[in-house]
Amino acid sequence: MTPSSQTDIVFINSLELSADVGPDCWNRQRAQPISISIHLHLQPSYLSSAGNSDNVQDSIHYGHLSKAITTTLIEKNSGSSSFSNTNNLIRAITHETYALAGKAAVEVKVKVELPKLILLAGGFSVEVVTLPDVDVSLVPRKVTVTDLVLPVIIGVNPPERKVKQRVITNVVFFERPPGAQLSPNYPEIVSRLSNVRVFFPPLHLVC
């Protein structure tokens, strides 16, 4: 699903909001900080008319897209801005983006970051790329845990086999389309990883 290099892109990078997308790091169902990035790929040369007229009204206005996400989507979504999970939030963002762009859109990439979801990690994100007229629930997801801190025994020398060292790694999960299935419990997965007491030869630690 890689668009042509000639495709114009309207993007919003790291729109910071707060919404309920499921349990937070303390397993509380409440609003938590989120960061939303959107890449809207347009039909080839769609923005040529805007370039010729020098009028932003002839293009997809990124300000209108930001407002659609913040006001139309987040603030109107019940009193608590509850989406239950990231799948529902990404589905809603994708729908709003396609509704604004109409037939000009080729694909929409949505990335939702939850910086405080996993206490042992520097960040957590879910990324989905959706084509027009395709339900988000039918699309694979890329889930990334960044800067995960793990105390592990790593090395081959006798002292290294006795004392744990601090290792920082990134873990990327490629999910099948979620459909009606529940997403994995990533905080629980990370918790189990942090409790593993395994010896890792240094050349075999690949993440």
Tell me what you see in this structure.
The protein has a domain at 9-146: 2-Layer Sandwich (GTP Cyclohydrolase I, domain 2). Helix 2 packs across helix 3 (86-101). 26% of the residues are buried. The chain has helices at 48-53, 62-75, 86-101, 186-194; strands at 9-19, 32-42, 105-113, 123-130, 141-154, 165-175, 199-200. It is α+β, with helices and mostly antiparallel strands and 207 residues long. It contains four helices and seven strands; from the N terminus they run E-E-H-H-H-E-E-E-E-H-E.
Describe the protein's topology.
Elements: E1 9-19, E2 32-42, H1 48-53, H2 62-75, H3 86-101, E3 105-113, E4 123-130, E5 141-154, E6 165-175, H4 186-194, E7 199-200
Parallel strand pairs: 5-7
Antiparallel strand pairs: 1-2, 2-3, 3-4, 4-5, 5-6
Task: State the main characteristics.
207 residues, alpha+beta, GTP Cyclohydrolase I, domain 2, 7-stranded mixed sheet, 4 helices, 7 strands
